[in-house]
Sequence to fold (165 residues):
Amino acid sequence: MKARVVYESLWGNTAKIARAIAEGIGPEARAVSTAEATGDVLAGIDLIVAGAPLLAFGLPTEAIRESIRKDSGSAPSPPDLSHPSMRAWLEGLPPGEGRAAAFETRIWWSPGGAIGAISRGLKRAGYSPVAKGRRFIVTGKYGPLRDGELDRARQWGRALAQAMA
Ligand SMILES: Cc1cc2nc3c(=O)[nH]c(=O)nc-3n(C[C@H](O)[C@H](O)[C@H](O)COP(=O)(O)O)c2cc1C
Fold:
């Protein structure tokens, strides 16, 4: 079973979760940024797991990314805007026949969500859902991840692999 865990991540929290999910899925899974997840990397893929942070209550828009690029406020480190937004990646995702799952990183009490928009994008490209989306929690605006979230991500990866078997 070939799997790719695709992420958008400005401060690294979503990337860490993506790598833990890939570990949980097993040796045939790899975590890749939206820049790396291009045509060849996705050819013949059985499972795409895609995730992004919740920014301003939803899947990051180009406008939000641009405002962060201009002013990243009190961020402890510069944002990584070198890879495309999950939105842009989903719009360019070539048709496929595999299965899919979506995740988001967020503060636990926030309204809104990114999982719905990611799931719809994956479905539009032909990837049918294998599991309900998963939220992973950070403790502050820029992270870090709450204790135990990487373990939860590995466990979810294992559950996805089982659901695909
Ligand atoms: C500008 C900005 C807006 C944010 N808006 C929200 C929000 O609306 N809801 C939420 O739960 N978290 C929000 N967060 C927290 C991020 O979702 C969280 O830090 C996420 O894990 C960042 O992922 P990354 O490190 O992969 O970029 C926001 C963070 C920033 C910097």
